Amino acid sequence: MSDSKVALDEPVSSDAVYERLRREIIAGRHAPGARLIEERLAQEYGVSRTPIRQALARVAQEGLVRIFPHRGAVVRTFDRDDLVAAYDLRAVLEGFAAAQAATRMGALQLALLEETARALEESLQAQFLNREAEVLYLVEQNQIFHNTIVNAAANERLAVLLPSVLDVPMQFRSFNWYTPEERRISNFFHRSIITALQQGDAERARSMMQEHIYRGRDVLLESL
Amino acid sequence: MSDSKVALDEPVSSDAVYERLRREIIAGRHAPGARLIEERLAQEYGVSRTPIRQALARVAQEGLVRIFPHRGAVVRTFDRDDLVAAYDLRAVLEGFAAAQAATRMGALQLALLEETARALEESLQAQFLNREAEVLYLVEQNQIFHNTIVNAAANERLAVLLPSVLDVPMQFRSFNWYTPEERRISNFFHRSIITALQQGDAERARSMMQEHIYRGRDVLLESL
DNA sequence: TCGCTCTTTATTGTATACAATCTACATGAG
DNA sequence: CTCATGTAGATTGTATACAATAAAGAGCGA
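ok -> structure tokens follow
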């Protein structure tokens, strides 16, 4: 038959476990400091401990959890310094991404940027079911915006590296979207970045992106 | 007994496997593109497949090998674009490290920098058993130099991230040390960086470090 | 009560067995 | 000769058993 086994490279359960575990930690379902008991996770995910251990090794390598020999895995905790360090790095890396993107961005990607920027702006007037859903939506749109730029930078290593810097639990990432004032500032930065990218102005794109992220950092730090 | 089990946190064999595997790949013992058969590694390392798989998942997460479901692990190959991307990232990250270090560096660390810089200079006149041993020594000293700066930046995330960018097989990293001319240029950069750091001049430290790395990239690209 | 040792229990680390999947090669039809 | 098909062997993915270690608590003497 023609389509008998076209699939090839069927996904593997340990990969699924990795993705899920990662998502759940970021979403806050496993709080920082919480122990991750292999047997418990195995039961919950409906697999044996083997793929769980595989996944734990990976998230540990990524930095989201720490593994202590013979004592198990614990979700990483974030203190003030950790967050500062993470945002510093993010500013450098995404600044670089923006600068690279300025000369490599396609028309389609620019259009996508405009679209998400508009979506974020319009949400200022929109009605939401509840605050939580609203913030979730904003964080998601914002993520699309930033991802688009990173992808346009066309540096695979960068794209692989960044997630491990961004892997900060949601609870820390949402502060930028709580007040209308901060939203307006974010929108301003997004628009400025788009303009710089349209003009192919790498240096401007870099500094705007960096300032955008530093602002995010400062807002977060004030809320602690 | 007093000292019966003070040890605590005894290292675990899968960690040892990870370290060794990583070293061997970087050293070129497993060439890019080579398959890493679990059973073979297990026999060679004297352990079962379980810790091998654990270690493979980690080096894969780090990017040194790629794992294809049901087809196994293959040492990552590097084409020209990969190398350019890696060096671009390295320039950004180590530039950042140098800038941070400029305001945080202790006297002891500065002394260590001077020492390794001197060691690299003196090697110009020194006699070595063979070229290979010589280059190995230079690469090692150079690594100490760069590590010292990264550590002085006091950003743990940065220190964790960088190795995955630096993880380029040795065969690619040694070109900077083949000609006396390149060694002199490297020495010049090292000295300039030290001066900037001593003066606490973050911007200068950053740009010198970036140029240092870009030079390394260009030399490497020419040799391909 | 405090501090010590010993035991018990929970959990991790490793080895091994088996199932699932891929690869290579042989076979045969056109 | 070329291409498809089937089969054998190699290799990976998962489950499970067991060993090793750490954490918590019981018992006991001072």
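Residues 12-14, 47-51, 54, 69-72 of chain B lie near DNA strand C (CB under 10 Å from a C1').
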